[in-house]
Amino acid sequence: MSLPAEVLGGAGPLARRLHHDHNRLWAARVDDQLTGPQYSVLAVLLDRTDADHTRLSSLTHLDKSTLTPLLARLEQRGLIAISPDAHDRRRRIVSITDAGATLVDELSPAAAEVGRDLLGALTTKEQDDLLRLLRKAVDGAANGQGDNTIDHD
Fold first, then answer.
1. Rounded to 5 degrees, what are φ and ψ at 39?
2. What Rg value do the Cα atoms of the chain yield, rounded?
3. Which pLDDT score is estimated for 2?
4. Distance between CA 49 and CA 43 in Å, rounded?
5. Which one-letter DSSP state was computed for residue 143?
6. Which ranges carry the HTH marR-type domain (predicted)?
7. H/E segment holding residue 52
8. How confident is the model at residue 146 (pLDDT cuts 50, 70, 90)?
9. pLDDT of residue 124 exceeding 80
10. Residue 104 confidence class, pLDDT cut points 50, 70, 90
11. How distant, in Å, are the alpha carbons of 1, 17, 98, 138, 144 from that of 8?
């Protein structure tokens, strides 16, 4: 009995394989103490200065149950600071520290290299097409749509 192609060669298994390869390259070339999602949070904060949990969740595509402990680890390492919003005590504002900004600056070249190497077997056009199609698939899945017409071009 043969397995359907989707079991081994479908979107889910291929996405897991690419994710595994990304994590392996990241640990080897960037930092084995800072994960890709942690780096993403720091990079967003470096670009935006500060953000609340909801905005960070949206910008990094991390759900709050993942983001909250991730932020706690970054705060323990002194890479971010979390403080109550002066205007709304229920909101917590996250900002990057000098140590966090320095780390992002140091790791950015290696992080970019991982992205290039992960898709290195593809031409530049193929990489652009793949990323466009992945965004479309992600947007469609997030909106519960099997066929999505959102285009990020």
1. -60, -40
2. 18
3. 63
4. 10
5. T
6. 1-139
7. strand 50-52
8. low
9. yes
10. very high
11. 14, 10, 45, 20, 24
Is the Cβ–Cβ distance between 15 and 2 less than 8 Å? no
Task: List the one residue out of 59, 26, 25, 27 whose CA is nearest residue 40.
Answer: 59
Give this prediction's pTM: 0.80
Strands 50-52 and 80-84: what pairing?
unpaired
For the beta sheet containing 80-84, the strands, ordered from the edge strand earlier in sequence to the opposite edge, are 50-52, 92-96, 80-84
Q: Do 107 and 91 form a contact (C-beta atoms < 8 A)?
A: no
Residue 122 is given by DSSP the state S
Domains of the chain as residue ranges with CATH: 23-108 (1.10.10.10)
Burial class (CB in 10 A: 0-12, 13-18, 19+), 97: middle
Residue that has been written with the tokens 């910008």 in this structure: 59
The pLDDT tens digits for 25-69 are: 999 999 888 999 999 999 999 998 789 999 999 999 899 899 999
Give the H or E element holding residue 80: strand 80-84
